[in-house]
Fold this sequence. Notes:
Order of helices and strands: HEEEEEEHEEEEEEHE
Mean pLDDT: 92
Strand content: 35-45%
Low-confidence stretches: none
Strand order of the largest sheet: 11-12-7-13
Amino acid sequence: MSRIGKKPVELPSGVSAAVSGQTIEVKGPKGTRSFTATDDVTLSVEDNVVKITPRGTSKRARQQWGMSRTMVANLIEGVTNGFKKELEIQGVGYRAQMQGNTLKLNLGYSHDVDFVAPEGVTITAPKQTEIVVEGIDQQLVGEVAAKIRDWRRPEPYKGKGIRYKGEFIFRKEGKKK
């Protein structure tokens, strides 16, 4: 049995949820998000609580039970608080700045890298060595942060590159004479 799926998801004040068939739509102060569950689970809203129950005892139904509960919990978290990923840039001459909706990255290439923020995500650069990606869709925020990080991943010898805040980079010793 799913330990995660058993827990009902509570709706905080200011958040409403509506179920139509297999789709749940959650409205909150930051926006509206929806999720369509598979036919293996049943969604219901009762007394400001969203409950997910499996249809049957098959392995797939039990897998979808926990996954659907987590997706609904993430929808509610997104429309109330939002999601945030922080990146930091390390390296001499490496910097970032916002120009309108475009993030300009100077990462040691012969050209500047221009990254246009997709809709639903806001990118800010409070310092030249910090980037903050925020939005209500957890998957989209993580994907945008990963794409920015991919422009210059941290290397293990000097630690230069773009890393997540608090990320540990295993350092290697250089070549010996």
